[in-house]
Amino acid sequence: MESFLQIQNNERLARADIPHLPFFQFRNEMLAFAKDGAQVVQFFAYEEEGSMKMLAVMRTDKLYVAGCDAPEDDKFPALTAESEKFHMFEREIGEQYGLKAEGHPWLKMVRYHKNYTGKKDVFDNDYSQDIPGNYPYFTVDGETVHEVAVGPVHAGIIEPGHFRFQCCGERVFHLEIQLGYQHRGVEKLFESVPFKRLPIIAETIAGDTTIGHNLCQAQAIESLADLKVDEGASIVRTIALEMERIANHIGDLGALSLDVAFNPPAAYFGRIRGEYLNLSQILGGNRFGRGLVRPGGVTHIMGDEQRQLLSEKLAELTPEVEHVNDLIFSAPSVMARFDDTGTVPYENAEKIGLVGYAGRACGLSYDARVSFPTECYADLPANSNARTDGDVCSRATVRREEIMHSTAIINTLLEKKVDAASYIPPEVNLAPDSFVVSVNEAWRGEVSHCILTDGNGDILRYKVKDPSFHNWTGLALSLRDTGISDFPLCNKSFNLSYCGFDI
Amino acid sequence: MESILSFCFAVLIAPLLPAVIQKVKAYFAGKQGPPLLINYYTMIKLFKKGSVYSTSTSFVFKLGPVVGFTTSIMMLLFFPMAEIAPLFSFHGDVLMLFYLMGLGRFFTIIAALDTASPFEGMGAAREAFFSTLAEMTVFGILIIFFKLTGSLSFQEFFSGDHVISLMGEYGALLLLVVAGLYVVMLTENSRVPVDDPATHLELTMIHEVMILDHSGPDLALIELGAYFKLLFYSGFLARLIDPFHSANVWINSLLFYSVVAFIYITIGVVESITARYKMDLVPKFILTPFIFVFFVTILTMGVMQ
Fold first, then answer.
1. Which residues of chain A neighbour B201 with C-beta distances below 8 Å?
2. Which residues of A are less than 8 Å from B196 in CB distance?
3. Are B275 and A266 inside 8 Å of each other by CB?
4. Which residue among A28, A71, A345, B153 is the one 20 to 30 A from B203 at the CA level?
5. Nearest to residue B83, comparing CAs of B213, B212, B257?
6. Do residues A253 and A331 both lie within one domain?
7. Alpha carbon of A333 to those of A250, A398, A483: distances in Å?
8. Is A119 domain-assigned?
9. Which candidate, B226, B200, B212, B221, places its Cα nearest to that of B57?
10. Residue A152 preceded by cis peptide, ω within 30
C-alpha cells in the first residue's frame, strides 16, 4: 500500500510516474491492501514491446495505482488463494494474456476466447468447440441431488447465459453461471478503430448502460486529450445518467412485481418507464441515450424549452411513481415474497466486492458519485439507504430510494439555467505514454474504463469493467440454500448485464 | 334432452369464462385485455397445427393430453349444472370422479416425466405434492356432504330432501366448506397464489412447466381439459352458494351461470391483488382449508346427534 500512488478519478498520469514494483512486492501490497478493506477497480495485464506487464487500480475512499512486470514463466502465485476479491480479475488475466494464476481455487474461463498473445491456453481449451469446451461444470453427487441446466437460450427476451443448478429437491446447493456468449472483443476494438468511433462502441457495450459507459469513455479521452467540458454540458450529462438510472430502476421494479405474479404495478411501471425514456429523448434525441455524450461535450443543447418540458413532465410523473411504489411495498403478499429471499450477507458481499445497488443493499455504502465525483456530482447531495439486509427486498428498496434521489438531483440541475456550448467535434490528440482511469456510478454500479497510451499517443490498452463483472458472483451466492423457484426473482433483483460482462 | 343441452352448453361456454379472468386482471392493470373470445381463437389455431414430438418420448407422452381431457370432460357429464339433472349419475359417482381426475393428473405427470426435461420433472413433483395435500380437503368435504345427505352422488347432493345449500339447515357450517373449496379450486386449477398461469419463468411454474413440450392439438386438449376442470369447480361452488331457485329452467340457468361468472371474476380479483406465495409456503396455504373442513366435520357430528 505504501508504494501505491494515490490518484484522482480521471486524472492523467505519465506512465513513468506509476510505481513499477517487483512482482512479489506488488502482490503482497495488494493483498495487504485488500485485507484492509480496499476493493479492486482494475486489475489487468497488457503487453508492451513483447513483455507482459500488469497494472492494478485499487480503491478505499481514494484511488491507488501501481504496476509490475509479469513473472517471466507466465505463471504467478494466485492472489485469489488469499483474497476472493481478485478471483474474476485473475481468471480474466489468464484468459486474455495467458498468465496463469497458480493455486487459484477456481481457475475457469471467463468469456471463452483465445488469448491475445498466442501463448498456450491456460485452460487447455480448443476454441473450435462450443462453450464450455474443456471445462467440467461443478457437480454435486448424491442419491437425491439433481442438476437443472437453464439456457443459454431462454424463454422471454433476455440475453444468453448458461445456468447450472445443483439441487436437492427444491433447494439449491450451488449455482454456476457461465457467460461469454456475446463476447465481441470490445477492448481490442477500442485499440484499433479511429477515435471518432470510440463513443459509438462505448455506447453499445451494454445497451441499458449507454450513458454510463459512454461517460467513462468520454471522460477518459477528455483527460488524455486535454479537452475541457463546459458546465452546461456537465449538467446535461449528469441528468442523462440519472434519467438512465430512473428508467432502469422503474423497469426492474415493475418486472420484480411481475415475477411474483402481482400484475398491476408491472403494467403501470411498464408505461411509466416509457415516459422516462421519452424524457431522455427530449434531452438527447434518443430514448436510450445514444449519440448524446461525446468527448468534449454533448451533442444536444438543453434550452429553456427542454428544461420546461422536463420539469413539467417530472412533476407529473413523480407522484405516479410514488403511488405505484406504495402499491408494491404495501402489499403484504409481495413483501412476504421479497423478504429473506436471496440473501447475500455483508461479509460475502465485501469479499466479492459487490458494487452498485446490489452492494448498497448489503450494507456496502460505496457510491462512485460520492467517493469519486465527476461532472456535477461533487455539488449534489448523497443518498442513504434505510434497508441493508442483502435480500431481494433490500435491493428493491434501494432502487425505490434511488429513484426519488435521482429525481431530486434532476430537479436541482434543471434549475441551473446554464446552456451547453454547441458541440464542435474537437481534434483528439491523446497524450503519449499516459494513463487514465475513469470511474462512474452507472445505474447498475461502478463502471470503470482505463486507458494506456503508447509513445505515439495511440491506445496501447483499453480496459473496460462493467459492474456486472463483480456482481454475477453475487447472484450465484444469493441462490445458496434458496428455493430454485426463487431464482427468477433473485436474478431480476440483481438484473445484471450479459453483454456488459461479455464485452 | 335438457341434460344433453345443458352438457353441450357447459362444454361450449367453458373456454369463454377464463377470458373473464383475463379481462378482470387487465382492468386492474389499466389495460384493455384480450377479446372475450380469445380462447376459442386459440383453440382453433391449435387444432389447425400439427404436433411436434421429441424423439426421446414414448407413447406415454401422447397419452397424457388425451387421458387428461377425457377425465375432465367426464366431470361435466356427471355434474348437475343449473339444477338440471346430469347425463349420468349413480351412487358413489363423486368418488369415482375425483379419482378419475387423479388418473388424469397421473397421466399428465408421467407424460411430463417422459420428456426427461429437468424442468418438467420439477413441475411434476410440485403438482403431485400439492394436489395430494388438496385431496385431503376434497375428501373431507365429501365426508361432510355424506353425513348431511347420506349420499355420494352429485345429483343427490343438490336434489331431494337434504339439499346442500348455504340457505339450508347447515348454511353457517357450509361457509367454511365454501372457503375450503375455493382454495382447492385455486390449487387444482393452478391459479395465483399457488401457481402463476401467466408466467414465462419455467423454474417457478407448477402446471405450465409440465406441458411445455406439448404442442398443437395436444396442447389444445390440455387447455380444454383445464377449462372444463375450472368450470366444474366453480359450478360446484356456485351450487353451494347460489341462493336463487326458480321453477323455470331458463331463469335458473341464467342465475346459475351468473354466479359462476361471479366466481371467475373473484378469481381475477384475487390474482390482481395478491402476489404468489413462496413455494415453501404453498403447502401451508393448501392445508389451511383442511383445518376448516375438519372443524366442520366435528361440528356436524355434534349437530347430527
1. 155-156, 259, 488
2. 261
3. no
4. A345
5. B257
6. yes
7. 20, 19, 17
8. yes
9. B212
10. yes
Residues in chain B: 305
Instruction: Quote the mean pLDDT of chain A.
Output: 91
The domain in which residue A30 lies consists of 5-131
Q: Which residues of A touch B33 (CB under 8 A)?
A: none
Residues A358 and A271 in one domain: yes
User: Which three cell numbers, joined as nine digits, stand for A24?
Assistant: 512479489
pTM: 0.91
Tens digits of residue pLDDT in A91-115:
999 999 989 998 999 888 899 998 8
Residue B304 confidence (pLDDT): 52
Q: Which residues of A touch B211 (CB under 8 A)?
A: none
- Compute the average pLDDT of residues B154-171: 78
Number of domains into which chain B is organized: 1
Complex-level ipTM: 0.86
- Among B113, B199, B201, the strongest candidate for a mutation testing the A interface, having the largest count of A CBs within 10 A, is B201
**Cis-peptide, bond into residue A132, ω within 30° of zero:** yes
- The C-alpha torsion from B171 through B175 and B180 to B181, rounded to 10°, is 60
Does one domain contain both A93 and A221?
Answer: no
Q: Tell me the CATH number at A216.
A: 1.10.645.10
> Mean pLDDT in runs of 10 for chain A (503 residues)?
86 90 91 91 90 91 91 88 92 91 90 88 87 86 89 82 90 92 92 90 92 94 91 92 94 92 91 93 90 90 89 93 93 91 92 92 91 90 87 94 94 87 86 93 93 90 94 93 91 92 91
Q: How close, in Å, is residue B193 to chain A by CA atoms? A: 8
Is residue A463 helix, strand or coil? Answer: strand
Nearest by CB to A337, which of B199, B201, B278?
B278
Chain B interface, mutation test: which of A334, A343, A485, most B Cβ atoms within 10 Å?
A485
In a domain, A66, yes or no: yes
Domain-embedded: residue A186: no
Residues A247, A117 share a domain: no
Mark yes or no for CB contact A262/B274 under 8 Å: yes
- CB of A353 within 8 A of CB of A40? yes
Q: Do B278 and A257 touch (CB under 8 A)?
A: no
Q: Which residue in A has a C-alpha nearest to residue B120's C-alpha?
A: A148
Q: Which three cell numbers stand for residue A317?
A: 410523473
Cell representation of residue A312: 413539467
- Structural domain span for residue B187: 2-304
Looking at the partner chain, which of B31, B199, B277 has a beta carbon nearest the beta carbon of A267? B31
Q: Do residue A267 and residue B29 have CB atoms under 8 angstroms apart?
A: yes
Model confidence over B241-264: pLDDT tens digits? 877 777 788 888 898 999 999 999
Examine residue A22 and say whether the peptide bond preceding it is cis (omega within 30 degrees of 0): no
